[in-house]
Structure prediction request, 105 residues.
Amino acid sequence: MAAKIRKGDQVIVLTGKDKGRRGEVLRVDPSDGRAVVQGLNMITRHTRQSLANQGGLVRREASIHLSNLALVDPSTDKPTRVGFQILDDGTKVRVARRSGERIDR
Prediction:
């Protein structure tokens, strides 16, 4: 199945503790159906000191399931579903269902 949410996309969180917040997708794991969004779903890790880092409490992003994310429509700036369209030259592009505008340039 084609990826509806990709690295670099602007997304909005639909459910959970960060509901309504926006961010940029840093990483997508299609096999698990999860994505890491910059600044959202922050967790605190207790890390041991090593030669590379000092250790202590480290805050970082945890993954969010793709069903809890929606792509932000580039024209209306609201959450939208994603569809696909095949152009005349045979390329497949993502399309915002809310406005019909192309997402891929």
Summary: DSSP finds no helices and ten strands in the chain. Residues 10-76 form a domain with the SH3 type barrels. fold (CATH 2.30.30.30). Residues 3 and 30 are 8 Å apart (CA to CA). The two ends are 20 Å apart (CA to CA).
